[in-house]
Amino acid sequence: MPELPEVETVVRGLQAALPGKRILDLRLGKTDFIEDPAALAQQLPGSRITSVRRYGKFIIVDLESANRNPPELSLLIHLGMTGQMVTCSPEVPSPPHTHLFFALDDGRELRYTDIRRFGSIRILTDVARKMLLGGLGVDPLEATQEEFVAKLHARRARIKALLLDQHVLRGIGNIYTDESLWRARIHPARLGANLKHQELRRLYHAVRDVLTEAIRLRGSSISDYVDSAGRPGGYQQRHRVYQREGKGCFRCGKPIHRAIVNGRSSYFCPSCQPAPRLRGRRRRSLPGRSLAYERCRSSSNK
DNA sequence: CTTACGGCCTGGGTGC
DNA sequence: TGCACCCAGGCCGTAA
Predict the structure, then answer these.
(1) pLDDT tens digits, A254-282
(2) Who among residues 178-237 of A has its Cβ near strand C, under 7 Å?
(3) Residue numbers of chain A with a pLDDT score lower than 70
(4) Which of A8, A101, A194, A249 is an S-S bond match for A269, by CB 3.0 to 4.6 Å?
């Protein structure tokens, strides 16, 4: 599940391997997940790669071609859940579900593999790309503390939803949301606006620490993720809550819970991350007053 | 406008 | 052995 640290790792690998290389040829497999495969086939061969960057969870591959008018286009790639971008020798047998093969002028091959085909690939002009990415929020590693606190405090949605919302912050997914909230000791169903400034400051540092450490360990490999050389990451061994339902909290030892928050599996420690009171104006006379956070009982397939 | 939620894409894993 | 079903994450449409 490539999120910011995984995409960053892939991008660093590609940035070390690709700039200056020319794409000689493109071979396509299944293309039903690509918006305009013909555009790729037409524009890519002959292009030279100038740089590879990350924007949120997107990979941007900048291209230039002398005999094209705009000479500069870029490839915008989203890995979805199971996407992989790997460079290797063309001799290496390609894994199943490899759908794009870029032949490079150094004799190597760049491949896109995606079991579920939830990813996306398109070739765009600068203007089109900026239009597409323009609505995304700030990068959590670039945001200032003031900016981060103000943004989240202004919203009444659940903090889990806000961290996952790419229009608020770009690049965070389910794993790093849960890991960050655990570290900041904040329950995923708390509302942004109800968080104390001190809690938001804690969350700011938690997010940064978690992402930075995850990048250092080259991302989390849960099922399919590998870097641009095909190697798994190591941060899954540092997960404190993600997929640890029933196991002991690393802080207090009590069992980690799983609940559906915002339609997403959420892992947290009910002791370190106390649930919010039941939401606002409730029918006045509830029989008893269950303070337990109802939505956090697992089950209830919503 | 904001928020919540269901559905959709696909295929691997699980459990009967 | 086969098969139905759950689930994953991001995104979009819709409803309140």
Answers:
(1) 999 999 898 889 999 999 999 987 654 33
(2) none
(3) 278-302
(4) A249
Buried-state track A179-212, b at ≥16 Cβ within 10 A, e below 16? bbbbbbbbbbbbbbeebeeebbbbbbebbbebbe
Q: A82 CA, B16 C1': separation in Å?
A: 28
The SS3 assignment for A4 reads helix
- Nucleic strand C near CB of residue A3 (< 7 Å): yes
Site of tokens 């904040």:
A186
CA distances from A92 to A24, A89, A95 (A): 18, 6, 9
A65 beta carbon to strand C: under 7 Å: no
Predicted pLDDT of residue A278: 64
Question: In whole angstroms, how far apart are CA A106 and each of A2, A11, A67, A90, A100?
Answer: 28, 19, 21, 11, 18
